[in-house]
Fold this sequence. Notes:
Layout: H1 4-15, H2 20-23, H3 25-41, H4 50-62, H5 65-81, H6 85-99, H7 105-118, H8 123-132
Helix pairs in contact: 1-3, 3-4, 3-5, 4-5, 5-6, 5-7, 6-7, 7-8
Amino acid sequence: MKNYTQAISCFEKGLEEKNLFEEKTILYAMLLDNLAYSKLKSNRVDGLPAQFYRSLKIRDSLGLKMEMISNQIHLSEYYALKKDTAKAVEFSKQALLLSRSSDKLNNTLQALKQIVAVDPKNARQNILKSTFS
């Protein structure tokens, strides 16, 4: 719906739930990533990229591959907005590599789309490298 201001408010309220991290760690990581992404989409960068990294670290520790791919794509979008093409490309490559071990084709398509968005000039080369490495 692209109502990021309302989304930010809802995600912040959700993150205030007592014992959320301890009792529902997966939900906590999801809310944190969604909060950070809503901020990114509304050009509010307070707390970024730290919130993305925290969510990614939690998801990595829980072995949540699909969710990690989403985090990596979000980090790529963040760095693209900040005009840090090298980091944007790196996170899109990481997302693509991880998506190759996923059984969800949509993950791979999202990662490919992000690589093309952040580095259209070298997208073909990056895609081939990640495919055959």
